[in-house]
Amino acid sequence: MTSPGDSSSERKPIISVSNITKKYGTLEVLKGLSLDVYEGETVVILGRSGVGKSVLLRQIIGIEKPDSGYIEVEGKRISKMSQSERFKLARSMGMLFQGSALFDSLNVSENTAFYLRQHERLSEKDLKQRVSEALKMVGLEGTEQKMPSDLSGGMRKRAALARLIVYRPQIVLYDEPTTGLDPITAMQINELINKTKQELKATSIVVTHDIRSAMEVGDRLAFHSDGKIIVIAPKSEFLKINDSKLQAFFKNAILTKENLGYS
After folding, report:
1. The model's pTM
2. Read out DSSP for 183-232?
3. Domain ranges of the chain
4. CATH 3.20.20.70: does it fit domain 8-260?
5. Among 13, 94, 212, 255, which has the highest number of CB atoms less than 10 A from its own CB?
6. Averaged over 246-261, what is the pLDDT?
């Protein structure tokens, strides 16, 4: 795995993925993938659709388990955690799903408050205050009574982000956050990802095939191909890497350094 110009090896990773594999039947999706993510940074994982980027997020958050290899969060191996440690970990992590995953039967306010009602003992006044703050942060003030079906695609993404940030996770995972959005709305979501990082001081992983979005939000960029991370580097150096698979990805995306605004 190439990592030019990356001095992060001197630090201790918050998330460490070590040689994990994952099969679905005879289809091997992850093939010995490794990745370290450090406190406070945003790592963007680029790759074509369907290569297993989202599968990696599901392993990290614990929705699925790898067939082999292991994942550590803050130095603790997930597979060896006690039930109470797993619960504590779940409270420190959040994931923005590609389809937003809002509850159709709940309005925006109820969706945003759902986690707090389930897991925290707050007065109704404090709960409403937390919900109000989260909706204001994503620019959805005044939408409290709207149902998910009343929202545009971009608004649904923002509502899902409000539901996530309301409990202030320290690790945030984003699954294709700009997919299906028009360029202006995608830019707004990128701005919210950066704002969330600053407000929560969160460590983030973003998976996407959108190189424009990657350059807007990423500190380091990684390229996922054939079940592994084959390239990772600070974004200032990422586009300069001479790797045939990476260059083919850029070509297919019909993007160049010039039209991204980077030299």
Report:
1. 0.87
2. HHHHHHHHHHHHHHHHHHT-EEEEEES-HHHHHHH-SEEEEEETTEEEEE
3. 8-260
4. no
5. 94
6. 64
